[in-house]
Amino acid sequence: MPVTFTKVENITDAAAVKSAYVPTHPGKFEVIYAEGDYNSMLIASKPYAKGEIICNVEGATVGSKTYTSVQVAKDGHIELNSDLVYMNHSCNPSIILDMDKRIVVAAVDLKPGDNMTFFYPSSEWDMSQPFPCWCGADKCIKTINGAKFLTKEQVSNQFIALHIQELMEERDAAKAKEKAE
Prior knowledge:
Layout: E1 10-11, H1 14-20, E2 29-32, E3 36-37, E4 41-44, E5 53-56, E6 61-63, E7 70-73, E8 76-79, E9 88-89, E10 95-98, E11 103-106, E12 117-118, E13 131-132, E14 143-144, H2 162-180
Parallel strand pairs: 9-12
Antiparallel strand pairs: 1-3, 2-4, 5-11, 6-8, 7-8, 10-11, 13-14
Organism: Modicella reniformis
Protein name: Post-SET domain-containing protein
Domain Post-SET: 129-145
């Protein structure tokens, strides 16, 4: 993986950022830079069939809970250190970020240029920077703030990491115990 990877948050000159861009996964996907805050996205560079492994998650480092980190355990986060950090959220995701296996998998058939999105609560329990969702999916959850704030029904059609499943079970058991007392 190139050591030239730098996450650009506020882009005032997309053309200049694009000209300096060195992809971390050439031929697999690329970043489309857009001016402003949080407007960039990751797109597929080639077709992928539903269920196909797009790439392994490599080069990640242990990190603290931030808006760019990905939760990988009940109390652990990583920084992706690659173009994967530009994957946006969707309630109808095009990819699965499977942090249990450390792979990225096509959730649907993808063609070149398709936006690569994942369901943030699939790995995030309580996000450091919640935001409103405008994905427009039929079952959009409207506010993206982590699985802690969702019911099992709201995530029933999504891939959910094991640590999030466990946290949801613990939360629901605690609520049931409290209710019974």
